[in-house]
Amino acid sequence: MKRGKRYLEALKVYDKTQLYSSEEAMDIVLKTANAKFDETIDLAVRLGVDPRHADQQVRGTVILPHGTGKEVKVLVFAKGEKAKEAEAAGADYVGAEELVEKIQKENWFDYDVVIATPDMMGVVGRLGKLLGPKGLMPNPKSGTVTFEVEKAVKEAKAGKIEYRIDKTGIIHVPIGKKSFGKEKLLENFRTVMDAIIKSKPAAAKGQYIKSVVLSSTMGPGVKVNPARIFE
Prior knowledge:
Layout: H1 5-11, H2 22-32, E1 40-47, E2 59-63, E3 74-77, H3 80-89, E4 93-95, H4 97-106, E5 113-116, H5 121-124, H6 128-131, H7 149-158, E6 160-164, E7 170-177, H8 182-198, E8 209-216, E9 222-224
Parallel strand pairs: 3-4, 3-5
Antiparallel strand pairs: 1-7, 1-8, 2-6, 8-9
């Protein structure tokens, strides 16, 4: 894979094989994030679990103390009073069957989070093949199938993110923007890591946190020592 000049220059700033404390790693990531736009800072965590087994799944939600830096558009499937509640809470789109039709006919995906009341899931279920692959399908485990519509909308807008292990045993999540600065990014990073650590399945054996890597949108990955996450 051919790398750009900026990426190759960034590699000269640090030792790619070394494990750093979270503070050291964040310093390097911010130093190498020199694109002309506000780069997103990403976290990748490899876990010592086998995602093929149901009892070793790692999934949950966490509210980042400083949000993601991205304006989150929320779509809510609800009717009656719950629809009014969603609108009052600041949802960007609220509706029922007509929104299902719009998504099916227009391939419409101008939103980041989809929330549905439980009574709407029979209708929303028809969108499984469209929303599922994009990670947008409402799910009780992530708090997006709920009658507590106001709370769900406000949490989504405040920077609630879902972390979920993929088929290769890795969790990928954004933890903010370069413009946040080191301290806010570290607080978001440690909040996510704390949640992942607390989500360790009882069936997981051996070393749980295999590797932790921080990177910016255009920059190389910097390895964090799993034993120095909170340093």
